[in-house]
Amino acid sequence: MKPVLSLAVGTALCAAVLYGFWRWQGAFGLVYAAPVTAVLARPLVDVISGFPRFVARLALRRYEGRHYAFRDRRIDIHIDDDAVCWVSTDDARKIAALPADAVLCRMLPHACRELGDPVRWRITTDGLAEVLAKSSDAEVTKFRDWLERDVARPARNKLARGMALR
After folding, report:
1. Residue 6 above 80 pLDDT?
2. How far apart are CA 18 and CA 12, in angstroms?
3. Which residue among 100, 107, 115, 162 sits deepest, i.e. has the most Cβ atoms within 10 Å of its Cβ?
């Protein structure tokens, strides 16, 4: 917003100076006052150079606060208002072998359900840690530790500090 405001102020200033010189000296006044238009150069460059970032933020805002990656594998995680992190079961299956969603719901009825945007089957980080605790694979252990260290604990800390979770 600041670059747009400075561009508007610069444009108004340049227009006033050019109009004043034109009224005072005619067409030659425009030639003499032309260097004043250099005032517009910096704000104009700032607005034009900021446009790609603006468009990228606009396109990616639905993923803001929800993009997590474990070893270059994208994981969709929904964090609710109580700082409970819900991991997409489809994304968790890319890393570890999980039972079918119906089986997970029977095993952990409190920790598995359909929710989020987009609506997917999700499991809480605590429920997923409980299921993954049965595995002896080193990659699964690293994934379970990553979930606690980089996803669940920061969400709980934000809630404890009263910060917005998104």
Report:
1. no
2. 10
3. 107
CB atoms closer than 10 angstroms to residue 120: 17
Q: What are the C-alpha distances in Å from 26 to residues 11, 36, 38, 70? A: 20, 16, 21, 67
User: What is the spatial order of strands in the sheet that 73-79 belongs to?
Assistant: 67-70, 73-79, 85-88, 120-124, 112-115
pLDDT given at position 67? 73
Evaluate whether 144 touches 132 at the Cβ level (below 8 Å). Answer: yes
Cα dist. 56→48, 60, 75, 125 in Å?
Answer: 14, 6, 20, 30
Q: Is the pLDDT of residue 2 over 80?
A: no
Q: Six-digit token pair at 20?
A: 């004043």
- For residue 112, give the 3-state DSSP assignment: strand
| % of the chain residues with pLDDT over 90 | 22
**14 exposure class (CB count in 10 Å sphere: 0-12, 13-18, 19+):** middle
